Amino acid sequence: MEKRVVLKVEDLKMHYKTKKGYVKAVDGISFELNEGESLGIVGESGCGKTSVSMTILRLLPENAEFKGGHIYFNDGKGPIDLVSLPEDEMRKYRWKGISMIFQAAMNSLNPVYKVGDQIIEAIQNHYPDLSIDEAKKKVAELFELVGLDPKRMEQYPHQYSGGMKQRAIIAMALSCDPKVIIADEPTTALDVIVQDRILKEMKKIQQKLNMSMIYISHDIAVIAEVSDKIAVMYAGKFVEFADSVTIFKRPSHPYTYGLMHAFPSVVGPKTELTTIPGEPPNLLDPPKGCRFAPRCPLATEECWEKEPEYREIEPGHWIACHHPLKVGEVVKFDEQK
Amino acid sequence: MSKSDLILKIENLRKLFPAERRVFGKVNLFVHAVDGVSYEIKRGESLALVGESGCGKTTTGKILVGLYEPTSGRVLIEGEDVTPYLIQNKKRVIEYLKDMYLNKFKKGEIPSSEVDKNMYELYKKLGENESAFINHFMKDRGKKMIDLRKKVQMIFQDPYESLNPRMTIYDIVAEPLNIHNIGTIKEREDRVADLLADVGLTPPDSFLFRFPHELSGGQRQRVAIARALILNPTFVVADEPTSMLDVSIRTGIMKLMMKLADEYDMSYLYITHDLAVARYMANKIAVMYLGKIVEMGDIEEVLHNPLHPYTKALLTAVPVPDPEHKRGEPDIKGSVAKPINPPPRCRFYDRCPLATKECEKLPHPELKEVAPNHWVACYVVAGDVKAK
Ligand SMILES: Nc1ncnc2c1ncn2[C@@H]1O[C@H](COP(=O)(O)OP(=O)(O)OP(=O)(O)O)[C@@H](O)[C@H]1O
Ligand SMILES: Nc1ncnc2c1ncn2[C@@H]1O[C@H](COP(=O)(O)OP(=O)(O)OP(=O)(O)O)[C@@H](O)[C@H]1O
Ligand code: SF4
Ligand SMILES: [Mg+2]
Ligand SMILES: [Mg+2]
């Protein structure tokens, strides 16, 4: 059976207006997400991962300008373009349709209310028929699930550690049984045992509810564990997209290759850390050809001049590069360059 | 060892937070956030502090920069007792001085450690006069507290919380220079620009006059690092400074932090969840569980030969960057650690795969040196009680 596409994003563009010009944070992103599937997005800090999710949820700051594209959401009743919805319609889809675990989450709890009450309120907003006791019970279950003592429902955010706040936020995001959950660095603040447990529980819930997930992380090891497919993002664009085994075993984009080799090991030999020399481009004025060219050891004149097309090089494997790597090809990132 | 070889020494540090009052009954409950922690960091060394979320890592750090008062214990920086300046309340400072020194001196207890001896010298010099001794710590308190702030800086876990949203990046990074009145305006500007470039915010011009909300998570984190380093501190508590950063930038920042440590003779207390990062940033490691250090030592030794069941579980749970790899299950029971009024036995008992009947009755195990430079707090591992 063909899986239903729950989310289809087409040529999405969103720029931030600043005094110095436009920051091109989301600059032509396209992808499809199937029901029950998880997509990992990796990419350098500042490349636009959070901006992509905020654009999808239409939760943008004042200086953000939507520049085009479509966001089709389909929860079984046929695709709807979220871009065209008025705000009060959109609100129905947020949280219950597409829910999000925010990167800034630790700080998004209201300091003057008990943590438990905040989640109960969120549930009751979307399920007005649920009694307080039922909602409480649900929150207690969610607390157990994320490894928080349910007694802590009675505490205030400042009494939580960083990781505990993060776990409360995860519980809140799961509380309305969303179809799609966008998790922006959800376990970055947690120790690996709690992380392991939350990832497993999220996988279970995901399977049980046939929920889809977009998982944003800078940690490629976590991405490897949770994702069916992986998108590698660089400077406002996806540069590679494929199933996770392909991305890890035979990356085609030189940037993907670099990311895979910059990972320090816990017990293996303590080798010199690889860095991708140079800095990510200034999104106010990105290079006109390939945005990775200034840091890419394979860059040729063509790369500096012409932007590579984002194309499907084999079924399900998309890439934007003039010189895709061959299987087994070694790339040397030279510090001196 | 000469006094300046020891950058930091903490002894039996404790911090209890009152927990919520229950609706029924008036029992006083406490979160034992830090519950008798001791370690030292020598010059040229850095210590990685790892452990469960909520085990007390940030609290330990915040005590060292004066954001939380210790409930008890002593903190030495470069051999000097700075505890009187970490306690805000003057009455409590006096209590501390009496408990830690005066009462012992009056009883004629012979001081054994370097600090105690120095304090005793001071006491004699001041004519064995109690109020003169106390006064010594009360005068110039403000200045001494500022000096201490300069020496010890903290990079906070949450870059969203720690950067003032109404200040520009320039003002945030330059603020410590303004407070301590260092350099001319021009020198300050240059120094800030240099440091921004050092932490990878280039070109600095395009960041100087932005506000924190106009930066990505990782970019804010780099601003926080720049701010902490601008006064060239002796000692930096780095609370998850690179956890928001992706690998390629993270390695850059890690290398930068190591280079700065080297150049400026600076040590880190490096708090992290990432054991691989810990390995690069520190040469010693302390593993915490519910307010206690359960394993400590040379980092290569501990990572290659973990002995405490909690450390073992941690290492098994480290994700592997390979989608086809099937990792083992961490051997740990239950899920929720409860720091509110924990029972006096081993803090790990409820979740421990090795726990025996004896473990239930005995108090929490002390750290014991089981191999050179490798301490473990576990009766079974130390061979004090028979394994199951
Ligand atoms: N409100 C804003 N105004 C101007 N620029 C912004 C704003 N928010 C973000 N940016 C810029 O847009 C770019 C993308 O930011 P975004 O937060 O999406 O990055 P990210 O990939 O999530 O990074 P990180 O991994 O560090 O969280 C960055 O260069 C950032 O400086
Ligand atoms: N101001 C406070 N009031 C009451 N309890 C607190 C306060 N700050 C921290 N705690 C409690 O102290 C314990 C330790 O918190 P701490 O922030 O030190 O943990 P941590 O090890 O840094 O965790 P994480 O890795 O999640 O950041 C937790 O149980 C927390 O709930
Ligand atoms: S002392 Fe006992 S309960 Fe504690 S860690 Fe060791 S075996 Fe487990
Ligand atoms: Mg982000
Ligand atoms: Mg913390």
Question: Which tags fit this structure?
Answer:
heterodimer; A: 337 residues; alpha/beta; 8-stranded mixed β-sheet; 4-stranded antiparallel β-sheet; 10 helices; 12 strands; 29% helix; B: 388 residues; Rossmann fold; 2 domains; globular; binds adenosine-5'-triphosphate; binds iron/sulfur cluster; binds magnesium ion
Low-confidence spans of chain A = none
Q: Quote the distance from N terminus to C terminus of chain A.
A: 51 Å
Write down the overall mean pLDDT of chain B. 89
Number of helices of chain A: 10
Strand arrangement in the largest pleated sheet of chain A: 6-7-8-3-9-10-12-11
Shape of chain A: globular
Query: Rg of chain B, please?
Result: 22 Å
| Helix content, binned percent of chain A | 25-40%
Q: Taking strands numbered 1, 2, ... along the chain, how are they ordered across the largest sheet of chain B?
A: 6-7-8-3-9-10-12-11
* Shape annotation of chain B: globular
Helical content band of chain B:
40-55%
| Radius of gyration of chain A, whole Å | 21 Å
**Oligomerization state of this entry?**
heterodimer
Q: CATH class of the largest domain in chain B, anyone? A: Alpha Beta
Major sheet characteristics of chain B: 8 strands, mixed
Question: What is the β-strand count of chain B?
Answer: 12
Roughly what fraction of the amino acids of chain A lie in strands? 15-25%
Largest binding interface between chains: A-B, 72 and 70 residues
Describe the secondary-structure layout.
The complex is a heterodimer of chains A (337) and B (388).
Chain A: E1 5-18, E2 21-34, E3 38-43, H1 49-57, E4 64-73, E5 80-81, H2 87-93, E6 98-101, H3 115-126, H4 132-145, H5 162-174, E7 180-184, H6 192-209, E8 212-216, H7 220-226, E9 229-234, E10 237-243, H8 244-249, H9 254-261, H10 301-305, E11 311-314, E12 317-319
Parallel strand pairs in A: 3-8, 3-9, 6-7, 7-8
Antiparallel strand pairs in A: 1-2, 1-4, 4-5, 9-10, 10-12, 11-12
Chain B: E1 6-18, E2 30-42, E3 47-51, H1 57-64, E4 72-77, E5 80-81, H2 83-86, H3 90-107, H4 114-125, H5 130-138, H6 141-151, E6 152-155, H7 159-162, H8 169-179, H9 185-198, H10 205-208, H11 217-229, E7 235-239, H12 247-264, E8 267-271, H13 275-281, E9 284-289, E10 292-298, H14 299-304, H15 309-316, H16 357-361, E11 368-371, E12 374-376, H17 379-382
Parallel strand pairs in B: 3-8, 3-9, 6-7, 7-8
Antiparallel strand pairs in B: 1-2, 1-4, 4-5, 9-10, 10-12, 11-12
Helix pairs in contact in B: 8-9, 8-11, 9-11
The site of iron/sulfur cluster has 12 residues of chain B, from helix 17.
